[in-house]
Amino acid sequence: MADISAQMVKDLREKTGAGMGDCKKALVETDGDMTLAIEYLRKKGAASAAKRADRRASEGKIFVSTTDDNKAGVILEVNSETDFVAMNEHFVNYVKTVGCTLLEGEFITYEDLLKATVGDVTIEDMTNDILAKFSEKIEVRRFNKVCTAGTVVSYIHAANGKLGVLMEVSAPELNETAMNLCKDITMQIAAMNPSFITRNDVDQVTLNKEIEIYKTMAMESGKKEDIAERIAQGKLEKYYTDACLVEQAFVKDSKKTVGDVLKEISKEAGQDVKINKFFRYSIGEEI
C-alpha cells in the first residue's frame, strides 16, 4: 500500500477540484495512482448523478455565442441546483467549454455531444468531473444550433447569464447599423418574450384556445353568445400585438413596431430582411 502524502492529495484536488476527503479516498482506493484516482473520481461523479436524478435543478447558466462570420450560432442551458454552484468558476468554465464544443461541431443529440473530445478528455469525462466536484444535480438541459446562409445574432443578459437569445435573419450580410438594429430586436425578444414571429405563425389550436377564453369571459359578464363571439375576435388583435414579435411595440421606441425596425434593417441591407427563427432561453423556465 502506497503512502498517501498531503502533497498527493493536494495535487489531485488541483487537477479535479474534488474535495480533500474524496481525493484522499480516491488515492487510497487506487494505491496512489494519480491517473486511476482521476478515473475513480469521474466514476464517482457518474454514479452520484443517478442518485440526484429526481432532484430539482432550476439554477445555472445560459451560454450564447456565434462564429466570427455570424453564419452559425448556439444557445445552451446548463442547470444546477443552486446559484452558488452556477457562479462557481469551475461550473462557468464547464458551461463555456460545452458551448464552444457545440458551436465548433455537429451534434444531433446529447449522447453525441458526450462523445466529443476536448484535448485528451471527452465531454462525458468533463461532465463526470463536474459532478464529482459538487454534491448537486448538474445537467445539460437543452441546446439549439443555427447554421445559415443569412446572419445569426445573439444576446446574453450579462448581469446574471440567466437569459439568452439566438436569432437568425435572412440577410447574408449586414452593415454596422443593421447589425445593431438586429441586436436591439434580440433584446426585445429577451424583454418581451414573444411566442411567434408573425401572426401567420400562430397555429389554429392556439387561436381556438384564445378565442374560447375571450368568449367565455364575455359571456360570464352577461354578453349573448353572438356578441361574445365578436368581442373574442376583436381581442385577437391585442393578442397578436402581445404574442407576435413583428407586431410588438418596439421597446426602445414605442412609436414603432418591431416590423418597422425590420423595414429599417431591410433599407440598410438593400433587400427585404425577414426573421427566420429565434430561440429564447431563460434559466429554469417550466421546470
Task: Kindly summarize this structure in a few lines.
With 287 residues, the chain is of the alpha+beta class. The chain has eleven helices and ten strands.
Give a structural overview.
- There is one protein chain.
- The protein has helices spanning 6-16, 20-29, 34-51, 83-86, 89-104, 110-115, 123-133, 176-192, 204-220, 225-243, 258-269, and strands at 59-66, 72-80, 117-118, 121-122, 139-147, 151-156, 163-169, 249-250, 253-257, 275-282.
- It is an alpha+beta fold and 287 residues long.
- The chain folds into three domains: 6-51, Helicase, Ruva Protein, domain 3, CATH 1.10.8; 59-198 and 244-282, Elongation factor Ts, dimerisation domain (Tetrahydropterin Synthase, Chain A, 2-Layer Sandwich), CATH 3.30.479; 203-243, GTP Cyclohydrolase I, Chain A, domain 1 (Orthogonal Bundle).
- Helix 5 (89-104) packs antiparallel against helix 7 (123-133).
- The protein is elongated, with a radius of gyration of 25 Å.
